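Hi everyone,

Forwarding the result from last night's run.
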Amino acid sequence: MNTRDAIEQALRAWNQHEISRGAAPVIDFDFHPTTEAPPAPADRLTTYLRLVDLLDDSTEPALAQRIRADLTYLRALLGEHRPLRDYIHATQGCPAAGWPPDYITDVGDTARRAIEDRGITWGLNTVTDLAAAEGRLDPESAPDAIQAAAADLEPVVRPRTGAPPGDPKTHEKPAEKCKGC
């Protein structure tokens, strides 16, 4: 098996482990579905050790970078607390621009209030509680749910972004307000 496929198999096995224990998926494989049965679940430490071996064997820079990003994420899940700037660079491949501390505090406060306004306590179980409150959306219902969300949010978003009013059924801008469209 080539290195790229071995990485994918390791990530799919880890993903299966997280899903089987009720955690969020590691990766959204919607754009790369497979008809094969999922691999046997592999816990975080097993996955970490497998990726370390794959990194040692990797000769392709892009694959090595990908493995290092996954290892960084796994180390964080296993309890490592790297400085945020280092973590972002390791997982995203670019430095974090950063925001002023007051902005971070304000956005954090806003997020916590929004969560708590929905009756969900901010804490260690926030992600699990949010997932339970939102429920799962089956793929067949997704197109209608997306259309409904777009129709609900469009009247709020357009004025805030300076976009001209549109027809919520077609999402088209009126021709007289959109010169050159």
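The CA atoms of residues 21 and 41 lie 10 Å apart.

Cheers,
N.
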